[in-house]
Design a protein that fits this description.
Blueprint lengths: L4 H15 L11 H6 L8 H8 L41 H4 L10 E5 L2 H4 L12 H8 L16 H15 L3 E5 L2 H4 L9 H16 L3 E7 L5 H7 L6 H17 L5 E6 L1 H5 L20 H22 L5 E7 L2 E4 L4 H13 L1 H11 L4 H7 L8 H7 L6 E4 L3 E5 L5 H5 L12 E3 L29 H12 L5 E6 L12 H5 L2 H19 L4 E7 L24
Helix pairs in contact: 7-9, 11-13, 14-15, 19-21
Bound molecules: 4-nitrophenyl beta-D-glucopyranoside.
Length: about 550
Amino acid sequence: MKIWALPFLIQACLIACHSGSDTVRIGTNTAANLTTLSPPTVITWDDLWDLYVGPVATATLNTTMAATPIPTAELIPPPHLNPAASSRGQQVPMATKNSSWSFPKGFWWGVASAAYQVEGAVKAEGRGPSIWDALLHRVTGYSVANETADIADNQYYMYKQDIARIAALGVNTYSFSISWSRVFPFGNGQVNQLALDHYDDVINTCIEYGVEPSVTLYHWDLPLYLQNSYGGWPSSQIVDDFVNYAKVIFSYYGNKVPRWYILNEPIAFCYDYPLPDNYFGANKEIPTWQQPYWCGRHALLAHSKAYHLAKSLGINGTISFKNNGGYKIPLTNSTEDAKAVERAWDFFEGWFANPVFINGNFPEALKSFFASFLPDFTDEEKQMINGTSDVFAHDAYTAEFYFAPKGGVDACVQNISNPYWPLCFGSTYNNPASAGGWVIGAVADPLSPWLHKTTEWVPAFLHFIADKWKPKGGIAITEFGFAEPFESVKTNKPDIVFDSIRSSYYKEYLEGILIAIDEGVNVVGCLAWSILDNLEWRAGYGSRFGIHFYLIK
Ligand code: PNW
């Protein structure tokens, strides 16, 4: 018997007993056969929803809505904003350098979203639950106000209107993700044709409006069944299931999509492991502290296999993965803080970027940390992983100061009981006390405290990526954006839509990209996060990133 299956069964039993439901069909299964039988003979679609999620809300509007014309009165450019003051290491705003700069021909820009954050309609047309349905419905406090994505922005039915608005904005790209559990309600097995038809129409509608569709295959919404069956990404079983899903998507939409992103931010979804106990079957054979790194290993294998498969199918759009993280600045001029910064790049961006852009393998600092528990990649695997991103796609919102722990980085690495181990670096948003302790930039909404407006560092950030990972296809900023502070507590709509910090963030960020381009960095496009206010994961609807206001109630 696999030990992880036990809490899974106990949980199932508890729920069944409480609900007194007679639709439960897993009561007669032993833990052993749950691991071996394939769906739906073990668990039905209804069981998955009833046992692990429970009742969901539905929107009043629940059929596909036609687009209505966008009133031009709603498309008013924001008032002029002054460029920010410059300070240590920062560059003067473009306006004073060369006001005639413009983006190169072929530069693409647009807006982004992700299926789980905007679609709603969670049980519509055969969609299976994802881990996030269970997390938000069952784990009290997992999102700050216990909000769910049941309805969200209802984009599942309103995508035509949303795409018409994107076109009216005058941008040329819409980047969205496909829900794996719509296409495969169990993550593997039976394909749901209704889901394939739906996304086909989303893609076709973009094309009809002259907006290029960018598609992400995985934006964190793992099919719940795969988490329950084998523990999700920390298990090697995920690789084949993911590649099989990718094969269906690439084959179905093929060359209608000019830019593909296979995975969104593996750093972020791998650090979500371990998931809370008692809500899922989890792979208890892997110690909780190791789970993020097993996840990372399988994310790289799944990504690279999917990449090669897509190329072998003749996909001619660019194919990449989206990395993430802020620019890293040493807190002081000490050599230890410089070391801390280097280690931070290795443990975050480098974890995925070194294998894909440099040599098929992890940075040295990670390799020595992994040595005691994670198998090395074989030569064949390294070869498979290296070179599998056509552009360096980075979700680059902000910047932070990094510092070494007391006693230095090396001493920390040797000492498991150091509170900073295993990362062995710390970060802060404040300048050193000697520089007055000022915060690095204006902070976003309190529900997104990691985000500060640090647009002065954009050129340095872009140079760093270009110099370190030398992406042949250039750099794309696949997410940047800002959650205006306290927007969700405002009640007067004109006040809500007047976004001072967000507007200057976008303006100065774009200027930063122009500076970098002028200085020779190949930046190929950028995507504002997000097209509209949406379910900001654990922050719920309180932290608003939308460049369109959307009242979710
Ligand atoms: C992105 N950081 O995540 C995600 O892709 C989106 O789904 C999310 O809504 C958006 O950012 C805003 O949070 C990030 O700490 C999370 O640098 C954290 C960071 C960056 C991106």
